[in-house]
From TrEMBL:
Pfam families noted in UniProt: LRR_1, LRR_14, LRR_8, LRRNT_2, PK_Tyr_Ser-Thr
Domain (Protein kinase): residue spans on this chain: 652-784
Keywords: ATP-binding, Leucine-rich repeat, Membrane, Nucleotide-binding, Repeat, Signal, Transmembrane, Transmembrane helix
The name this protein goes by in its record: Protein kinase domain-containing protein
GO CC annotation: membrane
Length: 784
């Protein structure tokens, strides 16, 4: 395995040079006075110098850069009023490949120094530092390597420096502090190391500073208090440390503070909210903050998002947060909140005043007490309500049906009692319902069948009784049904097993009886095609009787079948060793071993057949740090079927279309088992190279844990229902800003495979880790 990965890596590394680079840059030069001496000729030569180093030009921009046209008419060039000098160059998004020519440094006449031989291939040529008139420089989303040139200090007129999404290394040069006109500084998604330079504090005009997704360390310097105009500050996903940086308390203009995934620690000052009257988004997740949530946040009345997951916060949620009328998002997942008192949840009452609330995540804390009925008065806008893994008792109120926009409801691993209210059937937007491990009694309401958007239904480990409602057969998006470990009786309704969407049924440890569906005694045998998607069927520890229906042997997609401890009789002739992997379609990577089925008639235990080996590298896929070490989670097949993606994307509907490009189309999807929101890139296989790109891209992505990148969660390589090859990649969904990465595989491969690829590999992660008990909330840090 290792050697194949290594050889793969060297293969990808070479592939970088063959692949199209996305060369996306534009900058403008301030209009300089009319040429001193043949200035226009110098500009022309410089532009030809640029052209000469372009190796790929798919849209043939440079064909127009020829002698038959005056160079002031060449595409992408902007000239000054007297058409003397080039003042701007915009070649954004043209998929050019090559290197940035040092000749571009000649576009200004101000420097006549000797031009160094250009051996910087993928680096930012230092000659660019001659462009002292530069106001705007955008080289983002390229493959630029090397360090940020220290001579950038010559860019004294620069207002926007945008170098994000490259693989720049080294420290942020302290000279950046000379760019005192800078308004935007974007260096995020690079491999920068070292400290946050104190000189950045000199940038007193700065409004937007993004250094997130790098490897910066150390504390924030006191001088950062001087950036008085700063509005957006993104420092997430670095290794910065210290307390919540004291200098920030001087930055009262801040609207966004993103510090998640760093090593910050200590208490948050209780008066924190008073210092940020303009604050809209506060992201402090996955650090080591302790103490309580500052009650003063109630006074930061513009707050939209509060995100504190995975810290060591104690105390409770301040009731005053109910004053935040605009609050959309409150996430305190995995802290130590709650006093263990019966009134722990009283704050929920005040949150009913947050009339825009869309997401409330209280999971994995220490809240006890009774679920307040007032949750039914939370905003009807609420889409995600997660309170799992606390010790919350009480019952699910009937009026929960007020929350008509709920898409994900997770109250698992609590102490809830009473029945599942019939009214649950009115939550028709529900995609995931998780009530695992409670003390729920009564029946599964037949109204559950009205939840036609439901993708998973998890009810194991309760005290539910009665029959499995046949109405569940109406849930035609249902992918996983887990009802094990209850007191259910009766048969598995045929309507259910005939659901073509269903892939997994966990029904073990109940008192199900009667013949298995499909048995000829039970009416017609379901259409083969209907059954072909079921991958797992676990009916162990029940009491069904009669003979094992033969159709089970024909379920070609079945990966897991457990009929042990039942009263079944008869023989089951499974197909031996099916190993279908053609190079073209790589359909089902399933090696079904041989089976043996022994039968013990009328005895209360017997047998079983079961087998399955995944031919996959499933161990190394988990790359979502927030999902690690869930004791109750179960990793299923990390690869996803066409059908799952079809469901997640609403049949690849145009509503879910978020973009398309030459390599494919990107859809937003709400993912099955855990409610995760994902971006699904369906590759356009007509495009030359797309297929090759798929393999390379997936391989590169899945083996590397690199925080700079949109995370690939899984991949699907199979055929669609028309037996056409179908290939798709599934990415973690980030609401904004990453479309380029989804659409341009070439870039991802490049970023991932450069230089330190082996160092970045991590084999201990599992991509789609479908947790039965804890749906994760997608990372919505749209603006880190
Ligand atoms: C350069 O400018 C001079 C006058 O300013 C003009 O005569 C000449 O044609 C220009 N050359 C080019 C290549 O535009
Ligand atoms: C840029 O200027 C340098 C010297 O200033 C010269 O050597 C070089 O040839 C020029 N490049 C172009 C493309 O004009
Ligand atoms: C030169 O560019 C023009 C358009 O700007 C184009 O029509 C012409 O075909 C080009 N000539 C050559 C030789 O490519
Ligand atoms: C940077 O600027 C300094 C002084 O202007 C000069 O000596 C040095 O050669 C420049 N370095 C590069 C790489 O251009
Ligand atoms: C910029 O900041 C550094 C470090 O804080 C300081 O030493 C230097 O004097 C400052 N320069 C300017 C021009 O303000
Ligand atoms: C920060 O604010 C404090 C008072 O809140 C003030 O004393 C201090 O001078 C400020 N620091 C800067 C660098 O503005
Ligand atoms: C909010 O501000 C008001 C007025 O400054 C103050 O009286 C109140 O105590 C503050 N509330 C909190 C929760 O800090
Ligand atoms: C909601 O706001 C109203 C008006 O400000 C207030 O009277 C009421 O007490 C608040 N309700 C809760 C539960 O905080
Ligand atoms: C919900 O709000 C309505 C109207 O404000 C109120 O009459 C009702 O008592 C509230 N229900 C609960 C359970 O708090
Ligand atoms: C479910 O739908 C049926 C008709 O489709 C309707 O009669 C019934 O009232 C619904 N049940 C609930 C709880 O909404
Ligand atoms: C089949 O189910 C029984 C009872 O639930 C369980 O003990 C056994 O481990 C299962 N077999 C496999 C191979 O999973």
């Amino acid at each position: 395995m290792k050697s194949s990965l290594e050889s793969f890596n060297s293969h990808t590394y070479q592939a970088i040079h063959a692949v199209l680079l996305v060369f996306l840059f534009s900058f403008s030069l301030k209009y300089a006075a009319p040429a001193a001496f043949h200035g226009n000729e110098t500009d022309k030569l410089a532009l030809l110098g640029l052209k000469s180093q372009i190796t790929e030009d798919p849209s043939r921009v440079f064909a127009s850069w020829n002698e038959s046209v005056h160079f002031c008419r060449w595409t992408g060039i902007k000239f000054g009023p007297r058409e003397e000098r080039a003042i701007g160059l915009n070649l954004k998004g043209l998929i050019l490949a090559g290197i940035i020519s040092g000749h571009l440094g000649n576009l200004s006449l101000l420097n006549s120094r000797h031009l160094a031989e250009n051996s910087f291939h993928d680096e930012i040529p230092p000659q660019l530092s001659r462009l002292t008139s530069l106001q705007y420089l955008n080289l983002s989303f390229n493959y630029l390597t090397g360090e940020i040139p220290v001579n950038l200090s010559h860019w004294v007129n620069l207002e926007n420096l945008v170098l994000d999404h490259n693989t720049l290394v080294g420290q942020i040069p302290y000279q950046v502090g000379s760019l005192t006109k800078l308004v935007k500084l974007y260096l995020k998604n690079n491999n920068l190391t070292g400290i946050f330079p104190g000189s950045i504090g000199n940038l007193t005009s700065l409004e937007e500073l993004y250094l997130s997704y790098n490897n910066l360390e150390g504390e924030l310097p006191a001088s950062s208090a001087r950036m008085a105009k700063l509005k957006l500050l993104g420092l997430s996903v670095n290794s910065l440390s210290g307390e919540f940086p004291p200098p920030f308390y001087n930055l009262s203009s801040l609207e966004l503070i993103a510090l998640s995934f760093n090593n910050f620690s200590g208490n948050l000052r209780s008066d924190l909210g008073h210092y940020f009257p303009n604050l809209q988004k506060l992201y402090l997740g996955s650090c080591q903050f302790i103490g309580s949530i500052p009650s003063s946040l109630a006074n930061a009345s513009k707050l939209l998002q509060l995100d504190f997951p995975e810290n060591n916060l104690t105390g409770n949620i301040p009731k005053g947060l109910g004053n935040l009328r605009n609050l959309l998002w409150l996430n305190v997942h995995r802290n130590h909140l709650g006093y263990g008192k019966h009134d722990d949840l009283d704050f929920l009452n005040s949150l009913t005043n947050c009339s825009s609330l869309k997401m409330l995540h209280l999971g994995d804390n220490q809240f006890v007490g009774t679920l307040p009925h007032s949750i039914v008065n939370l905003s009807s806008q609420i889409q995600r309500l997660l309170i799992f893994r606390n010790r919350i008792g009480g019952s699910i109120p009937r009026e929960i049906s007020n929350l008509v926009n709920l898409n994900l409801l997770d109250m698992s691993n609590s102490n809830l009692t009473g029945r599942i209210p019939d009214s649950i059937g009115r939550l028709t937007n529900l995609g995931g319902l998780n009530l695992v491990s409670n003390l729920l009694t009564g029946v599964i309401p037949s109204s559950t069948g009205n939840l036609t958007e439901l993708v998973y239904l998890y009810l194991p480990r309760n005290k539910l009784k009665g029959n499995i409602p046949s109405t569940l057969g109406n849930c035609n998006q249902l992918l996983i049904l887990a009802i094990s470990d209850n007191h259910l009786t009766g048969t598995i309704p045929q309507q259910l097993i005939a659901l073509s969407s269903l892939t997994k049924i966990y029904a073990f440890y109940n008192s199900l009886t009667g013949p298995l569906p499909g048995n000829s005694l039970q009416g017609t045998i379901p259409n083969q095609e209907d059954l072909q998607d079921v991958q797992s069927l676990d009916l162990s520890l029940n009491n069904p009787s009669g003979s094992i229906p033969h159709f089970i042997a024909n379920l070609t997609s079945l990966l897991y079948l457990n009929l042990s401890f039942n009263n079944l009789e008869g023989e089951l002739h499974l197909q031996p060793c099916v190993y279908q992997e053609t190079q073209k379609t790589r359909k089902k990577h399933v090696l079904a071993l041989k089976y043996i089925l022994t039968i013990v008639f009328a005895a209360s235990f017997s047998i079983l057949a079961l087998l399955v080996v995944f031919l996959r590298w499933r161990r190394n896929l988990k790359d979502r740090p927030e999902q690690e070490d869930r004791s109750e989670s179960a990793c299923f097949n990390p690869n996803i079927s066409y059908e799952e993606l079809r469901i997640a994307t609403g049949g690849f509907s145009s509503e879910n279309l978020i973009g398309s490009g030459s390599f494919g189309t990107v859809y937003k999807g709400t993912f099955t088992s855990d409610g995760m929101v994902v971006a699904v890139k369906v590759l356009n296989l007509q495009h030359q190279g797309a297929s090759k790109s798929f393999t390379a891209e997936y391989q590169a992505l899945r083996n590397i844990r690199h925080r700079n990148l949109v995370k690939v969660i899984s991949a699907c390589s199979s055929s669609d229902f028309k037996e056409n090859d179908f290939k798709a990649l599934v990415f973690q969904f980030m609401p904004k800003g990453n479309l380029d990465e989804w659409l341009h595989p070439e870039k991802e491969i490049h970023e991932k495979s450069s230089l330190t690829i082996l160092q970045r590999m991590n084999h201990n992660r599992c991509g789609l880790c479908t947790s039965l008990s804890s749906p994760s909330v997608p990372n919505t840090h749209d603006s880190l």
